[in-house]
Amino acid sequence: xxxxxxxxxxxxxxxxxxxLLAAGAAPAFADGSYTIPIHQKLPLTATSQGVENQKKCADxxxxxxxxxxxxxxxxxxxxxxxxxxxxxxxKTVTVFGPPTDKHAYVASEPGAKLTxxxxxxxxxxxxxxxxxxxxxxxxxxxxxxxxxxGAPSPSGSPSSSASASASASASSSPSSSASPSASASSSxxxxxxxxxxxxxxxxxxxxxxxxxxGGTTGGGLAxxxxxxxxxxxxxxxxxxxxxGAFLVVRRRRGAEG
Length: 257
Fold this sequence. Notes:
Order of helices and strands: HEEEEEEEEH
Radius of gyration: 64 Å
Number of helices: 2
Distance between the termini: 213 Å
Largest sheet: 5 strands, antiparallel
Helix content: 10-25%
Number of strands: 8
Strand content: 15-25%
């Protein structure tokens, strides 16, 4: 009994489904290669916690971060590796090793983040590839400048110094010298009459020098060497002069009488 076309269609559907399941979840290419993701959770930096660090990653210079990727098992090799860094963008690697094509090395800027990674591989049936280790750069990574809103606050250390010096010096050396002198001389020389010449010349003198500090001087009398007021000495001198004159006049009158 011949099979109807409807029965052929019903039988073909399960067969096609079986072929899709056998092919697996990974995309396959005509050359037998397929694409797999990285096993680690991204993003990562070369110094992230949990990432193994080593000093040398193939021929990557120490001024860059080195990344070493590896495939599990021994039957699978890389065909193409695509990685994306921030900063740096996407990079495609098609040359692998050493020592074999199951090892891949990539360089990035110091401190860059690995944000995406996928690989086209051939052979075996692996589900992912691994980040084996990194080789952080020995160069110093400059921190990103931070922008803060608001007015800048300049820092300064103003110093103000005020020095005031005032010096006042006043010296006054008033000196007073009083040398009153009085002389009275009388000369009466009539014939046969002796002449007398009394003279009195008291010459008291006083000098006082009193330095004053602070620019102020006192209003008292100047002192002599014996602490006697100049006025008293002058009065005494005047009295002596008067007495001498009186004697002279008296003597004259006596002589005339």
